[in-house]
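Anyone able to model this chain together with S-adenosylmethionine?
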Amino acid sequence: MHKSVLLKETLEILDPQPGGIFIDATVNGGGHARAILERVGGKGTVIGIDWDKDLVEMLRSEAAQKEYKNFHVIYGNYKDIETVIPKKIIGTVDGVLFDFGYSSYHIERAGRGFSFQKNEPLDMRYDNHGANTTAKTIVNTWPQDSIADILRACGEERYAREIARAIVQGRKEKEIATTYELVSIIERVFRGRSRGRNIHPATRTFQALRIAVNEEFENIAEGLAGAFRIVRIGGIVAAVSFHSLEDRIVKTFFRERAQKGEVELVNKKPIVPTQNEIQMNRRARSAKLRAARKINISL
Ligand SMILES: C[S@@+](CC[C@H](N)C(=O)[O-])C[C@H]1O[C@@H](n2cnc3c(N)ncnc32)[C@H](O)[C@@H]1O
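re: yes, here you go
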């Protein structure tokens, strides 16, 4: 079960009241959504969105068993938030929560190559029923320069050029089909080099491929814009990010909107987890929560 990050803090920021309408745009196993549901009570509504159909089906059957009448789970991309939610609630939503990236389910159970520590097919799509390019297609068909570009832009990989060259060399010998095949190519590049900061040599490449496969940066920007269009005046959009590239998109987006007088920042500095939470959940260590309130109808 995925441990929800910054749960107490997101509830404080969203402050769900009885009868409220909230959207969890990255519902996953419903950790945050359940807590919001308890606060809004029987007269409130919580809509969860996830791009992973398998997860959505699991959560729907659980919601049906528990007879949650006011909890609706939608399969979709949060970048389309305006079109996937019921039209009648547009403009009445009290808050939207984003909790970006992958979950424990993706690492431990999905079998789609999200982790370099497991030998799985190189897929990395959240939406494995959809049409997005897989990581396998990227590493086996993209030009060397394009691979280097995404390793730099989405993984801040210092050795992007060297890794891209090794990938292209490797695929000439044999198609790269699994995570371990890719890891062994990356490890060869790092032989004799120091990776620094004690991270595995494949960490940044895997991050970059996951972001590129799922077009995560584009989705975040479009999702935030859509969320502000569907909340009411006074409604809140909150976002939990897990690395500096994600956080930069959220920070820039909120600041630009605040400068135009469309939103106000709820917290000037990002909210980060307590030491206690980090000790209980390693994934929380890099989390940052930012939130903004809609103050202008023109959005
Ligand atoms: C970190 S998990 C959310 C955990 C959840 N807040 C909880 O407490 O249980 C992120 C989820 O976002 C989903 N996701 C990633 N990109 C998405 C997108 N563009 N649209 C909708 N869901 C997405 C993933 O499938 C994953 O289930």
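Residues 244-259 form the longest helix (16 residues).
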